[in-house]
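Obj: model holo form, ligand = zinc ion.
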Amino acid sequence: MIFFDKFLKKEYTIIECKNCGYWKKEKINVNKDVDKIVGHTKDLFFNGGCPGCNNKNQIEIRIYDKNGNNLNSIERDREAAEKMNIFNKWFEDGIYYQKKGHMNVIRNPGDAEEAYKKASECFDKALEISSDNYSAWYNKGICFQNMGNTDEAIRCYDESIKINPNFKRAFSNREMIKIIERSKK
Ligand SMILES: [Zn+2]
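Output (holo structure tokens):
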């Protein structure tokens, strides 16, 4: 699409719905806080939905400079996929260090502790991206349990169970800690 109006001498965004064809053009100043402006547009259309059909996923926001060059395109689906990739990377790193911890727990307790610490930091990074992932909370709980920090482990299992009340492994680990704690008294 080519536009020939005066408006296009400015930088602008085009918001387009791929479901119903709704589109809107907005003037912006790319030198001025473009992230904030685009962030606002994202909030409006990704969270509020398309004004034409209410769909929230098939909306694309494109940013152009004053010469009509497409500077950036933002799609919710693609953004979500990118976020998921980063989440998966941290999660997999966490599992890697957790396994390293398990392998060292008897022979090199110091190494195990260090590996569990690293693993829990990876799960934290994953949870920064997706705080409602019960599996990341559960695995973080295992790390703290194995480091002897039972309070923090219980807190993690609680979070996991809150998100997925049918997740039996978090339940049984939490129960196990409580039984051991009781037996100590
Ligand atoms: Zn629409």
